[in-house]
Design goal:
The protein has 2 domains: 7-42 and 284-382, Aspartate Aminotransferase, domain 1, CATH 3.90.1150.10; 44-282, 3-Layer(aba) Sandwich (Aspartate Aminotransferase, domain 2), CATH 3.40.640. Helix content is 40%, strand content 15%. It is built from 13 helices and 13 strands. The strands form 3 sheets. Strands 2-8-7-6-5-3-4 form a 7-stranded mixed sheet, with helices on both faces. It has a 4-stranded antiparallel sheet with strand order 9-10-13-12. α4 runs parallel beside α10, α5 runs parallel beside α6 and α5 (97-109) packs across α9 (250-263). It starts with 6 loop residues before the first helix and ends with a helix. 49% of the residues are buried.
Length: 383
């Protein structure tokens, strides 16, 4: 008897993040250091922009590629911040969050049998979207001792004639790492030499604690080989608005727009109006949120230092810390379940992010300092 669901769906892994979140619903007193979502409300002027757009009747379909005004603002952002010129007419597509941007990218460039290099550990949705496109995920180990960065030298043994693309995620989920310029440059040169696409996930580009962010698309000769994926979700606390974008070569973006027509038609008109105002007026609010994230990161690192069985490579970006628990002698899933059931603290087992994450827990510090301190009081009481 044939299975009810298509094989491509049956192959998809379940989210360990969502599993922990669902299990935590049983405990009303649980402290959540789990979901990767800002705890801030969307800034009021952005909400007002969406409200006014709805009141004025801006509630209809938009072009498949999104409002030109928003695409133009995205182009201006990358020209200003990265020194890279994108044509808003043909090289930018507004999407239903970064998730859809990733899906459209994979479906557009990955053919059955193509291989995509993914860092291990990584955000698990990368694997899922490669599988949905009929490709093969190839995991490249990254390690704490090297700053959780995918080194060019580590990539070499995993390259083949079938390698179609490599995914770079900086700042990184789940580790909080940020690639340095010389590390990006080596990967850039390798991909140019081997004619490999780069998919640069830049969802956390503004949540950075050291220096300024540099996109790999800004390296000489890389624009034509790079797809930049970004979102308003993390930067502007707009996760529920579901609006993101992708920048890339015209000949591929053109086909993605066609694909968008068949999958989502367009991103929400109201969300696009709000996103435009976020880009135009949101810098000050973003700085305030990052300042608060920095306080929380520092508080979390102080609490980790008080637990002899824990250690952590300090995150340079995002609102995640990837905490080494190997001294406990327990598997990450077992230990995460213990923390939930006995201490009412919700974390994510490192194994949820791939084999390279075993021995770690991901802590999200997108919560108050008070919650962080109480969570670690409970953890210390337990262990």
């Amino acid at each position: 008897m044939n299975p009810v669901c298509a094989e491509r769906v049956l192959k998809l892994p379940h989210s360990g993040i969502r599993r922990m979140f669902d299990l935590a619903l049983r405990y009303k007193d649980a402290i959540h250091l789990c979901i990767g979502e800002p705890d801030f409300a969307t800034p009021s002027f952005i909400v007002e922009a969406g409200f006014q757009a709805a009141k004025k009747g801006r509630t209809h379909y938009t072009p498949n590629a999104g409002f030109f005004s928003l695409r133009e603002a995205v182009a201006e952002k990358y020209e200003r911040e990265q020194g890279v010129s994108y044509d808003p007419e043909s090289e930018i597509l507004i999407t239903v969050g970064a998730m859809e941007a990733l899906a459209l990218c994979m479906l557009s460039i990955v053919s059955p049998g193509d291989e995509v290099l993914i860092p291990d550990p990584c955000w698990p949705n990368y694997q899922a979207h490669v599988i949905l496109a009929g490709g093969k995920p190839v995991f490249v180990p990254v390690v704490e001792e090297e700053g959780w960065v995918m080194k060019m030298e580590r990539m070499l043994p995993y390259l083949s004639t079938k390698t179609r693309a490599v995914i770079i995620n900086s700042p990184n989920n789940p580790t909080g790492s940020v690639y340095k310029l010389h590390e990006l440059e080596k990967i850039a040169n390798l991909c140019k030499e081997r004619n490999i696409f780069i998919i640069s996930d830049e969802a956390y580009e503004k949540i950075i604690y050291e220096g300024e962010y540099k996109s790999i698309c800004s390296f000489p000769g890389l624009k034509s080989k790079t797809f930049v994926i970004n979102t308003f979700s993390k930067t502007y606390a707009m996760t529920g608005w579901r609006v993101g974008y992708i920048l890339g070569p015209e000949e591929v973006i053109r086909e993605m727009v066609k694909l968008q027509e068949h999958i989502a038609a367009c991103a929400s008109s109201i969300s696009q109006e709000a996103a435009l105002v976020a880009l135009q007026q949101g810098d000050q609010e973003v700085r305030k949120m990052v300042k608060e994230y920095r306080k929380r990161r520092d508080a979390l690192l102080e609490e980790i230092d008080k637990v002899p069985l824990f250690s952590c490579f300090p995150p340079r970006g995002t609102f995640y810390a990837f905490v080494n628990i190997k001294k406990t002698g327990e598997k990450s899933e077992d230990f995460a379940l213990k923390l939930l059931e006995k201490a009412r603290v919700v974390t994510v087992p490192g194994s949820s992010f791939g084999p390279g994450g075993e021995g770690y827990l991901r802590f999200s510090f997108a919560t108050s300092v008070e919650n962080i301190k109480e969570a670690f009081h409970r953890i210390r009481s337990l262990i």
